[in-house]
Amino acid sequence: MTEAGDLRQHHQVVVVGGGPVGSLTALELARGGIDVLVLEAAPHTTDVPKAGTIHARSIQLLTRRGYFAAPDVDAEAASTTFHYAGVWGLEITAPPGEGPAIAGIGQSDLERLFTARLIGLGTPVLKAAVVTEVHQDDGGATVTFTHEGRTRVVTADWVVGADGARSIVRRSAGFTATETAPTAAALLGFAVLDDPANAPRGWVRTERGWTVLNVDHTGFSRIITFDLGGPHEDHRRPLTAEELQVTVDRFAGRPVPFRNARSLSRFSDYSRLVDDYRLGRVLLVGDAAHVHFPLGGQGLNLGIGDAIGLGWRLALVARGQADPSVLDVYSRERHACAAGVIANVADQRERMRIGVDGDRLRHELGVLLEDRDRNRALGSAISVQSQPAPSALQDAARGDFAANTVIETDTGVSDLIRLHVAAGNRGLLLCGDASESVRALVEPFWAERVRVIRARNLGATTVLVRPDGEVAWSGELGDGGELVTRLAETFGGSAARARLTSAGTRQPRTGAKRLPADG
Ligand SMILES: Cc1cc2nc3c(=O)[nH]c(=O)nc-3n(C[C@H](O)[C@H](O)[C@H](O)COP(=O)(O)OP(=O)(O)OC[C@H]3O[C@@H](n4cnc5c(N)ncnc54)[C@H](O)[C@@H]3O)c2cc1C
């Protein structure tokens, strides 16, 4: 583990917060060759149970980045049944060849996995380091923190705030946010049920409120109550076992005795979404940027998307290969995604309300869930797979997430996920018939950022896929102008210079003049 005495004064990027999202962001940067320092307030990873639902899109992203084993491309589509607004029957489906629709993985396990890899890459991770201030000017940023009773300062070209809901980075740097006030009060705890066989299991609604019990017959059960009637009187007051017991009994309408209650906390439907994920040299990821009612288990999943969406872009910018404006694209994309989740969670909350309005909305939901297409559309929203995943890469358009598919390369049959894993931090440029022209156009400038692969089964189509699986461009090459423009927008570099140097796409590969990789 890193000691404060080993730290250097300056780093390309300082990541504040080494939770699941911060450790993944730092790992993505370190894999991109960036000199990163992680400052984490806690002395060690805690096992307080929080997120455990990893949704389909997160699985697909983590698989493409090589953190989970690549599935068999021939595997059938995977489906699972989930809940929406407390109603069971939502169908979540992952496309064929993409692995499971949901995985149950604790967030502390993910944090340990990412942190171990980070440390393996030699990245300093300083624990028990509490950041107190972030200051930036045109030349860089200064991060002040306390460690072992001393105040210390490091400087960085870029700072990433991954320090959770109460983010000091967000407040200190002056990010603005849009908030909604709490209207509901939820309690959470883990306890041993005295009579698990007779406890109300799953999502149960009565005239007084909701109980949600994940009943464990031999160990600790997770116990949640939702009171949709109003917010906590004092959300900072520590929750006691007695208050949880009284609330569960009242909502259930009968005693549901438990003992050894632990990990007690309150939460609410308060939401906050920063207006911009970037302010100069400071960026936000995870709960530092967005918080919402944890219905449907989407918060960490959003954070995983943030980390993977930011990592490759910030690596390009920190290396001087791309203009910082690519970070504004990160901000816009992730803001839209979080806004969608916040709207979806608010919709669930309204359908959970006790009374005639809630009853009507839940009835409508029941009808909706019986319609297979609408059910699947809602399932895609919850699993953050909102963009359609085309079954064939040829049909993919810009903004689609490119679903796994067989790719016939010059060296054998592979698939999109395996090519992503092999490409590391680079994007993929898959080209059919036009591969020689594409290489001549692209390799002198973008070889470090994009891997060009001949995909014999793509015919006349060329597809540019970002490291996070999104299609940046697809179509027939033509004079190459559109592709070059999109390459420059996505991965940095000068499109004009590329066009001039390559003098059109007909230039043979051997004739291409090699220029510095930063184009
Ligand atoms: C009951 C509950 C259930 C949930 N279930 C799910 C689920 O199933 N699926 C899902 O996707 N999401 C779920 N969530 C949401 C999920 O837990 C969060 O979205 C997730 O923890 C966000 O990760 P993060 O790394 O952004 O923030 P955090 O996990 O809060 O990590 C922030 C890190 O920053 C550190 N830090 C804070 N301040 C400082 C500082 N000043 N200096 C240095 N370090 C600092 C902290 O110690 C911490 O390690 C749930 C939330 C709750 C409350």
Structural topology:
Blueprint: E1 10-16, H1 20-31, E2 36-39, E3 53-55, H2 56-64, E4 78-84, E5 87-94, E6 102-104, H3 107-120, E7 125-126, E8 129-137, E9 140-147, E10 150-161, H4 168-173, E11 177-180, E12 185-193, E13 202-205, E14 210-214, E15 221-227, H5 241-252, E16 258-268, E17 271-274, E18 278-279, E19 282-284, E20 290-291, H6 299-318, H7 325-352, H8 356-370, H9 372-382, E21 406-409, E22 412-415, H10 416-423, E23 427-431, H11 435-446, E24 450-454, E25 461-465, E26 471-476, H12 481-491, H13 495-502
Parallel strand pairs: 1-2, 1-10, 2-7, 10-19, 23-24
Antiparallel strand pairs: 3-6, 4-5, 8-9, 9-10, 11-17, 12-15, 12-16, 13-14, 14-15, 17-20, 18-19, 21-22, 23-25, 25-26
Bound molecules: flavin-adenine dinucleotide.
Flavin-adenine dinucleotide is lined by residues 16-22, 39-42, 50-53, 107, 130-131, 162-164, 168, 188, 267, 286-287, 294, 297-301, 303.
